[in-house]
Design a protein that fits this description.
two-stranded antiparallel sheet; 3-stranded antiparallel sheet; Glycosyltransferase
């Protein structure tokens, strides 16, 4: 056993026990129209969480998975953005910060087309939604067609992608830019340390961090970083959430743009399914792929890097975001080979450690417990597993899948884990961990059948077949 692996990865009893545990988490976190990530730390609906949760929910209830996405997209702004939080008005304001009275979306976001009757945040998260919608459709195409699920979501998904490739193309070279560290999803990544160093933090006495009520301070962002997050959010709000305003923080992130490409391929399939022409989406996916390679690939680092649009140049930090482009269909073979070498190397140790860490193990800022600065996350590893499989790397994908399933059950579906030991970190009973466990279980159960087909990239019709009807709880919700 590797010396870094301080304790063995525990085994779970069996797949049925694991499935029941994951289902229990999702049922407990369901709030009638959507699923909260956790019952303490995250009491509202989060954007990319809901996309991952819908992917897992389709194995329990296709109708509930559809509603998850429908509820989120009902809060879409008129300019096309999908906000990263949709607030539940029944939750007290002091349960989470920044709360609705900080974002003031219905007033401050009026020029950008924020909904008047739903309070949301004003920033976004990675665009996994078209991919999720396509996978939910494939789980039960008859129900999807009968309910007009894709026909109703397609215009909203198209507007979302138009927003990212239009107003958010801040670099003018075709890629979507993120204007806040919370937007790429890897909130506290060392990749943001340089760009954030230019931001003056807001005074700590002007706000209260609710996250520390539910999480250990050693596992959360520092007060300095949090003050900078609040400053950026407040400035963006005070500028009316206008992307044309000067931005103190603006980055092109490889994970975000890789997911946009994967979802653009999925949107092409959705458009074809609903009677439209998929060609414009296929062409945009190709342009985005070319821009991703041209703008963010680093041969020196053997992976994709973030680009700082304010300070200029690539950010010399190796995070797991640079491996996520494995999900891109048609990524040039030499780049796939190099990414695999990097993933297996000393920085990430794919196949040696239970799961791939969120940041280079040898990096100067590595911390095995602090939020996004080293811990291994289930959603990132799920993306890597699918990317590996999509490029025909089934052996590596199988090993990663099986380790993820063992850790999910052994850690009570924790938010993230120590990459060395697999020890649970963050909050327990976490939504996307449970949901993606269900998806990996279904894939493992149908592995022989799926390998008889083409394993397939994101967004294609060659997806893992849904579980048999008897394996799904067809809740009429």
């Amino acid at each position: 056993m590797n010396a870094l692996l301080e304790t063995p990865v525990p085994a779970v009893a069996d797949d049925l026990t694991l499935r029941r545990g994951a289902a229990r988490v999702l049922l407990a976190n369901w709030r009638g129209g959507s699923t909260i990530p956790s019952r303490g730390l995250y009491p509202h609906q989060w954007s990319w969480d809901s996309a991952f949760i819908a992917i897992g929910l389709r194995h329990l209830s296709v109708r509930r998975a559809q509603r998850e996405l429908e509820t989120l997209l009902a809060a879409q702004w008129a300019d096309g953005r999908v906000p990263h939080i949709v607030f539940n008005p029944a939750v007290p304001l002091d349960a989470y910060f920044p709360s609705p009275d900080f974002w003031r979306s219905s007033r401050a976001g009026a020029r950008a087309g924020a909904p008047s009757a739903i309070e949301t945040s004003g920033i976004v998260q990675p665009p996994v939604h078209a991919l999720a919608a396509w996978l939910v459709h494939l789980a039960d195409p008859d129900t999807s067609r009968r309910r007009g699920f894709l026909a109703r979501l397609r215009p909203r998904l198209a507007a979302w992608h138009d927003y990212l490739t239009g107003p958010r193309d801040l670099g003018g070279e075709g890629l979507a830019a993120m204007v806040h560290p919370w937007e790429p999803g890897m909130d506290n990544s060392p990749s943001w340390d340089g760009p954030l160093s230019r931001v003056e933090p807001i005074a700590p006495q002007t706000y209260r961090r609710a996250d520390l009520d539910h999480g250990r301070s050693a596992e959360r962002p520092t007060d300095l970083d949090y003050g900078r997050y609040v400053r950026l959010a407040a400035d963006y709000r005070d500028a009316g959430y206008q992307d044309t305003a000067p931005q103190a923080f603006a980055v092109e992130d490889p994970s975000v743009n890789a997911l946009l490409i994967a979802s653009e391929h999925a949107l092409a399939r959705i458009t074809d399914e609903t009677g439209g022409d998929p060609t414009p989406h296929e062409e945009r996916a190709a342009r985005l792929t070319e821009a991703l390679v041209r703008r963010l690939w680093s041969a020196e680092y053997g992976m994709f890097l973030c680009r700082d649009l304010v300070g200029g140049g690539l950010v010399a930090e190796r995070s797991a975001a640079g491996l996520v482009p494995l999900v891109v269909p048609g990524l040039p073979a030499p780049l796939v080979e190099t990414l695999l070498t990097t993933a297996k190397g000393e920085g990430f140790r794919l196949g040696e450690l239970p799961m791939v860490p969120s940041y280079d193990l040898g990096g100067h800022a590595f911390d095995p417990s602090r939020y996004w600065r080293g811990p291994a996350w289930f959603n990132i590893n799920w993306l890597l597993e699918r990317g590996l499989r999509g490029h025909g790397l089934d052996q590596e994908a199988d090993g990663l899948r099986d380790a993820m399933l063992r850790l999910a059950g052994a850690s009570d579906f924790t938010e993230y884990v120590d990459p060395h030991t697999g020890a649970a970190r963050g909050t327990r009973d976490f939504g996307w961990t449970a949901a993606l466990t269900l998806d990996l279980l279904a894939a493992r159960q149908t592995a022989s059948a799926s390998r008889g087909r083409t394993a397939g990239h994101f967004g294609t019709s060659h997806e893992t077949p849904p579980a048999p009807a008897g394996e799904r709880e067809r809740s009429q919700v």
